[in-house]
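Hi L.,

As promised, Tumor protein p53 inducible protein 3:
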Amino acid sequence: MFAAYFDRPGGPENLYMKEVVKPDPGEGEVLVRVFASALNRADLLQRTGKYPPPKGASGILGLEAAGSVAELGPGCSGRWKVGDAVMALLPGGGQAQFVTVPEGLLMPVPKDMTYTQAAAIPEAWLAAFQLLHFVGKVQEGERVLIHAGASGVGMAAIQLVRLAKAIPIVTAGTQEKLEATAKAGAAAGFNHKKEDFSKKVLEFTQGSGADIILDCVGASYWEKNLNCLSTDGRWIIYGLLGGGEVHGDLLARLLSKRATIHTSLLRSRDKEYKERLVRAFTEEALPHFSRGASPRLQPLVDSVYALQDIAKAHRAMEENRNIGKIIIEIP
């Protein structure tokens, strides 16, 4: 089979399409013929040698995929049959023609949805769902500040916050991205390059601040995050785009607000945790992707690249051009 590959860590120019051995499904696994995958920041980090796959996971890029069931491994429960349209959360291996998946990590592709649209769901939407419900325990009426609001996780989080009857507030770096987040349901949005988002959040919340902050930036935002975090608020860090080294009186300021810091990574979680997450998402959120559902959830596809153009896709994400997900179509 063909797969996205690189021989040594480095820039996008190292990526190419390589013929590799097709995997065989093991006990309780399903072989999926992949029609579309999606690009994530983790793929860029892995390509540069900064984020190796978990032990035992495929070294091929791709944390999500959509396709059809090609083969059932031994011991499968009968939940799936050959030909079923499925999408999957993966620790790696999604940007290839075939990938093996534990049957408990598969989800049905919603009706009336293409594989290209479905590939935009697993990683971003499950990550956002996990951050909000498993980690943040979001409650109705709470204010949720979402950094990188126009990213895949950000656009998913906006809609999931609305589904939870809470209030999404976002930051983004361009007016175009802020307009896209407003269309997705953000109650307020602020350009972090042109204004102090912490002051704007406090103004919008009439001084109360955000009850939950979903933060993929880290160190460079810590002071502003604490400025606008509510008393007893939850600051959830799931990325470090702005660095990880903090200089200042973080603990005293955190203590003064009785606030908590949570950190979360999804890729390194064990299979049992991911299966529990997939079950909860399938029951609570997935029905809202179907036509006629109210409220309706919709994945946002920014652009589509063929697998042989994988280097171009990486460059587009590195330049922060995308609003929503970058999809990789598999030949």
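The chain has ten helices and 15 strands.

Thanks again for sending the construct details.

K.
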